[in-house]
Structure formats: structure tokens, C-alpha cells
Protein: ABC transporter ATP-binding protein
Organism: Phyllobacterium brassicacearum
Amino acid sequence: MSGAKLKAKSIAGAKPRGAEKLRQRASTVEVASEVEDQGAPPDFIDPDPELTPEEAEQARKRYLLRRFWISARGYWGRGGDRLAWPFSIGLLILICTNVGFQYGINVWNRAIFDAIEQRNARTVYFLSAVFLPLVLGTGSLVVAQVFLRMTIQRRWRSWLTTAVIARWLANGRYYQLNLVGGDHKNPEARIAEDLRIATESPVDFISGVISAFLSASTFILVLWTIGGAMTLTIAGSTVTIPGFLVITAVLYAAITSTSMAVIGRHFIHLSEEKNQAEAEFRYTLTRVRENGESIALLGGEEEERSGIDKTFANVLKRWALLTGQHMRTALVSQGSSLFAPVVPVLLCAPKFLEGSMTLGQVMQAASAFAIVQGAFGWLVDNYPRLADWNACARRIASLMMSLDGLERAEQSDAFGRIRRGETEGDAVLSLNNLSVSLDDGTAVVKETEVVIEPGERVLVAGESGSGKSTLVRAVAGLWPWGDGSVNFHADKRLFMLPQRPYIPSGTLRRAVAYPAAADNWSLKKINAALDKVGLDYLNGKIEEDSPWDQTLSGGEKQRLAFARLLLHTPDIIVLDEATSALDENSQDKMMEMLIHELPKVTIISVAHRAELEAFHSRKITLERREGGAKLVSDVDLGQRNSRRNLLVRLLRHPRKVPGRHRSSIRS
């Protein structure tokens, strides 16, 4: 049964209320980015086994670029940005107009130098006055061009980032990526940094290519017209070279471009390795920050420093290799820029000296030659950026491929899918012939049959590795692979309490209210909830914005998670080792408080502590077996817990027991 058909609402952990809006937004964005005229992403076909490893890797890289464009071009599709085409056409018009102004300035150069050569003061003054409008017009066009170009980049990045994030967050895929294989490490770095470069560079590249093509086409005509033919006498023979300036410009550009292509042939590969090394370095630093308390308590600074130094050394090594590439390409680029203005002057000098060319024509030819070289040399100057874009686009495409795989797994019959539906009768939750497997089909839990009635408190037990947490993930909808069904009551809400509660950044009030908005409850109610879980000493810090994830201890975080329960008042609670950081006495008080405050709530607990049996009415045990864990017992704890609770009351309140003295109880 589809998620749309499942009416059971839930909060925190599995399917929070806000997740329905997120799911709708994800669906909308996926339609915008995928279900366009380009169709769905193609299946990745394994390379021909007869290919060499190098050829297979090249085939994979070509596919990755294709995969990136399948989603990225949706920005200009029917479901894309409505301003994409107007802005793109506007940018093209500005580029063409700017080339026209360049031509105007080129003609102005010829006229002003001819006037100077002829000592025509009136023309010089007139052309001086004309120059200001030309400069203002060119400047205005450049500013407008920058605005449109960067606006397209910003909006394209926003559109594609929203699409990728929506797909990443949908159906718990951000979590499932940690469980499956694939090239998708550090997805946050890929989305934040690689996607930025992947959307900025193509706009720069395409606008640059168009501008270079138009400039080259326009000023090659200028060179052909001005330069004409050159006649040379070699060994008594006369040789005429038509359009000698054009031929020289093309040859010059071919030499520099070929040199750049040969020298920079390893640029893309080195850029990919450098970006990957940078991502791994950021990930290492992030891990240290997130686990700072554990590292500090264990005194692991030296070991962490060793790991950081190792990853940073890899970054420096990649940078050193890339520096060598930049040095060689800079040599070609700098040499080209130095020779370009001189070559046309030297070529035109014989014609100027014999009087067949004016000074203005020489200067116009020099200006046109420089523009043509700039156009032809655009690739030379931007080859490093093109290589960087290749690397970033492939990293984004690798993440997209992993998301594609999860989406296909959700829709394919190749691997079993756990169905989600509604319970029959009053049962709040039922697991019907539920089997949980890995994404490769390996069974973890097999053929589980459980029906849980309203108000039941069920303890799921079993040795470590028996599949208890995996079963909880399947119930929460985070683990999609398997068989059978998980069914909820249509009107019940689910709340998950994991072993390590998530503490968002911001105020303590936001942390207590999560995943709902911080202002959904009054300060009085939040303070009351903190009082009941033993965190009353934090009431004065409710509005304080601090790094609470680092400040609070493990036990305090678990208490705070129980405070969330009191605010959200769900119908079903799943506790996954949710009291593991508390001592036995604090654990008992927390469970007693929970049962007292929410007497009708249905509780499903996953835990190892035998003491928790006292707070549950039923115990089911999983046993790890070859081929997947199985449910081996389902025991009613009601009568056993009644006797234990009486003993607990006797030990805690001996004076209230008639006919007994405190000393006799102690004995």
C-alpha cells in the first residue's frame, strides 16, 4: 500500500507531520527535474567486460556527465523556472549587443589614429566626445550581462539544490544511503559545494563560448578586410598569401590551444582527486567536532590528530600535483597574452612602411587580432575551470545515481518491499508475516507476526545483532526492503525515541519542541515538561541559544526526549534503547512518569536491560538464526510485573505496609 493511502499520522523519527509537506514538495520537485521531456534517468549499464579498466572508467565518467544533465536541464523544462528562458534569451541578446559595441570601439580605434596621423584636430575632438558614450554603453552592457549571468546561476543552483535535497530527504533516503553501497560519500559537501560549481561553470562556459564565437567571427572579417593579401618574394618567386592576418591568427590560436590541451590533459583527473581529498578532510574534521566529548574523555587527541594529518597530507599532495598543472598552463597562457599584441604590429609593419596601410588600420588590426586571440584563447584560459566542473558534476551525478537506485528499489519487484497499510479492528499496530532484508536481499528478520492492542506495553528483547533495531527501522518506515506488511491504526500517531536523541541547533525551547515549531507550546507547558523529567534546572535557559548537542550529557538528552513525549502526547511510542544512558533508578522514575502521564499510550521498547520488564505487559524475543532472526517467544508479563511492582513498593515505602516493621523489610 502506498504512503498516500496510509492515514496513520506520526511525529518524530518515522514520519513526522511535516514530512507530508516535505513529501509533497519532493514529489513536485521530482516531477520538475525528472518527468520532463528528457524522461526518467537511464539505467546504468555495466561496461563491456572486454574493455580495459581505463576504457571502463571513461565510460562511467561519460555516463555520469549524461546523468547530471538529465536532471540539470530540467531547469529549462516545463516544470522548471518560469524565468529561465527569458533570462537566457536576454543574456544572449546582451552578448550580441556587446560584440557590436566592441566592433564600434574597434572602428573608433582606426578613426582616431588616422585622425592623429593626419593631424586632424577637429576629428580627434569629435571622436574623443564619441568615445564616452561607447564606454558607457559597453560598461552598462557588461553590468547587465553580469547581473543576468549570475541571476541564472543563482536560480539554477536554487532549483537544482531544492530538487536534490528533496530527493535526498524523501522516504528516509538520507539515512538509507548509509546502509547501501555506492559512490555517495559526504553528500552534504556534494550538495553544498560541488553543486554550486556544477551550476555556475556551465553558465560561464556557454556565455563565454558564445561571446568568443561571435567575437572571433566578427573580427576575423575585420582582419581579412584590413590585412588583405601579403606578397612575398622567395628565391626569385612571388608568393601571395590571401588574408595573411587571419591565417596567422588561426595558426597562433591552434598552437596555443594544442599546447594547453597537451599540457593540461591530466587536469580533470587531478581536479577530481583534489575535490575528493578536500571532502574527506572536511568529513574528518566534522567527525571530530560531532564526537568531541567522547574523544576528549578517552584522550584520543593524538590519534585524531594522526588521522587529520593523514587526510590533510593527502589534500596537500593533490594540491601539489594540481599546482604543477597550473604552472604549465599559466606559462602557455602568459606567453600567449604577451605575444598576441606584438605579432599583428610586426606583420603589418611592412605594409605601413610602404604606405599601403594607414596607422589607423595597423591599430585596428592589432586590436582585432587581440580580440580574436582572446576568443580563440578563451578555452586556454578556462580549461582549469572546465576540468573542475567535470569533477564536480560527476560527484553530483554519483549522488544522483545512488538516489536513482533507492527510487528504483522502492518501485521495483526485483527486491521485496515492505508494504504499509492500516490495521483491522482496534489494533494500533500489526506486523503481518514481516521479513526484513538488506538491499541485496540478505535476510535480517524473517516471518514476524505481531499484533499490538491499544495501551499495550511491549518489550522487544534479544541478543545484540539479532535484528531488533532493524525491526524498529522497518516499523518506522526507514528500512524499505523485505516482505510482509506493517500496518498502523488510521487515527494513531507514532513517536520514535532513538538511543541518541537528535538535538537541533538553536534555543533549548526549540530542542524540546522538536520536530514541531518552538512556539507551539507556551513556556509554562515546556517548563512543566522539563520539571517532570528532572530537567527543572534548565528552565531558566529555555530561550538560550547554545550548542546544546555538545552541552547536554547523554542522560540529559534522553530526559529531554521524554519531555518531547509529554508535549506531543502521541498514541504509539517506540523506545529504541531510549533509557540506556540513565542509571536504573532514573530509568525506573522515567518509565513510571511516562506511564502515569500518558496512561493510554502504546509503548514498544527495544532494550537489553531486564529491569524494564517491570514496565511492560508483554515481551517478545528475537533470536538470531542462519537465514535471519525469528520471533521465538511472546510472553505475557502482566502477572509477573504485578508481583515485582509490589516488592518495589515494599522496598521504597516500608512504613506504609501494615503489620511490618522497617527492620523486618531490610532483613
Q: What stands out?
A: The first strand starts at residue 10 and ends at 11. The chain has two domains: 62-411, 419-651.
